[in-house]
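FAQ

Q: What does a record look like?
A: Structure on top, sequence underneath. For example:
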């Protein structure tokens, strides 16, 4: 038994004619008949009642139809997966990324790429920029996407585009009511900052004040700023709607904005395939259009 024989059986049942099957498959009617007869000999059953050119599937043929169609669907899926692998050298991409980009961007990107490459599998985990290089270097993930990634001797880094990071507070916070501020004002106020535990040590990013709260994601920081707890440096893509509505304000202190590179890192032995490159290009295009 082979899948070609099963395909002939399914088509014969669906089309009701060996001649139609032969025409669709580009083979002779006798070749189709011999294929089905070989199945009957192997299984020891009659699959069709024949009367001249007419064929009628038997009960056993109809009982086998669902199983045969499932086997053919599995064959198609295996073939498609192999073809995709040959075209991209990728069947799964494991990604660690920070949350400087909106969650919606990652959802849309994954859905769009899955539509183009249906058999690709994705794993996405959240990490701080400080953690990302070590996760990639250890082999836990293939790619790390983050804002201002620290250098790592075993990794290659590529800039995806620049991202603005701004000093902000809730529009109702006392700092936002001032016409002008200096760093003393900020040092005397609670700062919400990104914090990462690395090798028994806590790293805090852009910390100015000794009165601070360290959190593990930009979105957590944004939410706490929204509660008027303190001020923070936050990536511009997470601020757009809140700045437009007045819920957040960029603080009137110099500098109130910094530019950082949003980067991807990967092991030197890792080759970016078609899907990885497509994701990187999509990200670069988005960052360019955002600014």
């Amino acid at each position: 038994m082979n899948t070609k024989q099963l395909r002939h059986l399914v088509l014969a049942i669906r089309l009701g004619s060996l001649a139609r099957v032969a025409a669709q498959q580009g083979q002779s009617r006798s070749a189709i008949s011999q294929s089905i007869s070989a199945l009957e000999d192997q299984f020891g059953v009659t699959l069709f009642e024949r009367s001249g050119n007419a064929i009628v599937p038997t009960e056993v043929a109809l009982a086998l139809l669902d199983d045969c169609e499932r086997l053919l669907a599995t064959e198609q899926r295996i073939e498609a997966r192999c073809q995709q692998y040959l075209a991209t050298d990728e069947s799964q991409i494991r990604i660690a990324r920070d949350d400087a980009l909106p969650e919606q961007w990652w959802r849309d990107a994954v859905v769009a790429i899955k539509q183009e490459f249906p058999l690709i599998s994705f794993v996405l985990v959240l990490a701080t920029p400080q953690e990302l290089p070590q996760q990639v270097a250890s082999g836990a993930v293939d790619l790390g996407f983050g804002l201002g990634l620290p250098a790592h001797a075993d990794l290659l880094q590529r800039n995806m585009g620049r991202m603005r990071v701004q000093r902000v507070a809730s529009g109702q916070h006392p700092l936002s009511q001032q016409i002008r501020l200096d760093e003393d004002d900020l040092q005397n106020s609670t700062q919400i900052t990104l914090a990462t535990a690395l090798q028994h040590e806590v790293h805090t990013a852009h910390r100015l004040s000794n009165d601070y709260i360290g959190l593990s994601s930009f979105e957590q920081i944004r939410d706490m700023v929204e509660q008027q707890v303190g001020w923070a440096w936050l990536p511009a893509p997470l601020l757009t709607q809140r700045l437009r509505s007045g819920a957040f304000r960029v603080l009137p202190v110099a500098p109130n904005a910094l530019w950082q590179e949003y980067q991807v890192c990967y092991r030197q032995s890792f080759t970016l395939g078609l899907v990885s490159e497509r994701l990187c290009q999509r990200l670069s295009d988005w960052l360019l259009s955002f600014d």
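Q: Is there anything notable about this one?
A: The first strand starts at residue 48 and ends at 51.
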